[in-house]
Amino acid sequence: MISLDLDFIRAQFPAFREPSLEGFAHFENAGGSYACGQTIEWLERYYRQTKVQPYYAFAPSKLAGEQMDTAKERMAAWLNVGTDELHFGPSTSQNTFVVAQALRTYLAPGDEVIVTNQDHEANIGAWSRLADDGFVVREWKVDPETAELDPRDLEALLNPRTRVVAFTHCSNVVGSINPVRELTDLVHRAGAWVFVDGVAFCPHGMPDVEALGADLYLFSLYKVYGPHLGAMFLRRDLNARLPNQGHFFNADHPAKRFTPAGPDHAQIAAVNGVMDYMEAVADRHGFGDRPVPAQAAAVRDLFRSHETTLLQPLLDYLSDHPKVRLIGKDHAADRAPTVAFTVDGHRSTDLASRLADLKLGVGVGNFYAYRLVKALGIDTDDGAVRASFLHYTSEAEVGRLIEALDSSL
Ligand SMILES: Cc1ncc(COP(=O)(O)O)c(C=O)c1O
Questions:
Q1: CA separation, residue 170 to residues 176, 177, 200, 237 (Å)
Q2: pTM score, two decimals?
Q3: Is 199 near ligand 1, meaning CB less than 6 Å away?
Q4: Which of 14, 29, 64, 302 has the fewest Cβ atoms surrounding its Cβ within 10 A?
């Protein structure tokens, strides 16, 4: 197994050479990742060379449009989906709201929707509000001890009126990776659509979305080393069946039906930067000549293997500590390196401030997984501390975090 060339990886991220960030260790990646240099270069270049209305005949306009199209094509290929099935909106929360708006007129009286209480509110609230229009909304609940979802509970909720089931690929608090394909097959057998939030999963390696089988799959590029955009895979036939949410005269343009806000052209072009980075990683590690889905799989495995190695000592430290309540599993292979915990006798906000004094940036709060934090019996205002890292994190940084926790608890 080839191991990650961490020096090469870190050299791609200007934040690691930025004097003002010297000595700072970033452990709030689940909130937002550093941008790779390629993303920054694309944004800068777009603003300098092609910051005009795209898709006209004059040269900078034509080039702007071509760059936007290329970005979509490259990312769609990496995700193994059709280019016409990938859409860029302002954020994942906005994307779910647009699709929910379409469901309001598409669903029939008596239709049912299932949401979880493990998700970020972006993949709950948009669908839950359908209850205001008279649709039945059911909640697939986590076990309050383990914070996990049990597929048998979903099976019990599914019925012939179920039209949509929304769940997360990976919770931004629990970190467990849910078995999307297995769940999707279960829901499809019941005749419903599957809407998956991939926001907390994708920074750890963008998946083969086609293989997952979901009908809607969402993630946020500002957490995947890119610009502040929401990426949305919307299955072709779903796009065709749901009512248009764009301008009426664009109803026959699949690319315009579910992105009613004018897109941010520069940021879409800068998705090329994320793809340049992914390809550079593939080349550097000797996968560059494989077909794109195979490159994507190899990069995913590379990231995952590095992250898992760094994660286990942190989980061991937290799960062994008598005062710590670790949320989620203590085995690195079963989860993402998004590690939330509370500590007896310490307010989470105080602990996060103490770590900040030591130049360790962790997150704190409910992370908009409000219903989950509440179900776990944790104060929704103070919440939990969350340390989340990515493939560009070093062993030394994780070591510093463990030492700082040890001196603080
Ligand atoms: C798991 C998860 N889903 C959805 C979202 C919402 O994403 P966006 O900020 O793009 O609306 C977030 C944001 O933190 C998240 O962590």
A1: 6, 5, 6, 26
A2: 0.98
A3: yes
A4: 14
